[in-house]
């Protein structure tokens, strides 16, 4: 089972979340994380990126995989280099929105 981190509080508690029995890995959602930090829509805001990295570090301390969504190619590459085990680079809502133009 994957846990999901989408708040600043969750990012700070990433190690404890990942260490929870039954959790096999953790997924970090920068979009909702940004909203929880008061920077709605700014997934690449420096504070959001720093919180994602804190979450990565916490999960890594447990030896479990951590993933993240990154719709921007540059952000995806940076997160891969920072230790993301898996990346989500698209979402159904984005695909539907693009197709509706």
TrEMBL record:
Keyword Chloroplast part of the UniProt annotation: no
Keyword Lyase: yes
One Pfam family, short name: HpcH_HpaI
Domain of life from the UniProt record: Bacteria
SUPFAM superfamilies in alphabetical order: Phosphoenolpyruvate/pyruvate domain
One annotated Gene Ontology cellular component of this protein: cytoplasm
Protein's recorded name: 4-hydroxy-2-oxoheptanedioate aldolase
Organism this protein belongs to: Microbispora rosea
């Amino acid at each position: 089972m994957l846990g999901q981190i989408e708040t600043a509080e969750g990012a700070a508690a990433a190690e404890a979340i990942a260490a929870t029995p039954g959790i096999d890995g953790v997924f970090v959602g920068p979009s909702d994380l940004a909203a929880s930090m008061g920077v709605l829509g700014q997934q690449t805001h420096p504070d959001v990126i720093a919180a994602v990295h804190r979450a990565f570090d916490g999960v890594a301390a447990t030896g479990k995989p951590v993933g993240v969504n990154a719709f921007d190619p540059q952000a995806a590459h940076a997160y891969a280099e920072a230790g993301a085990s898996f990346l989500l680079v698209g979402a159904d809502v984005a695909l539907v929105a693009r197709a509706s133009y």
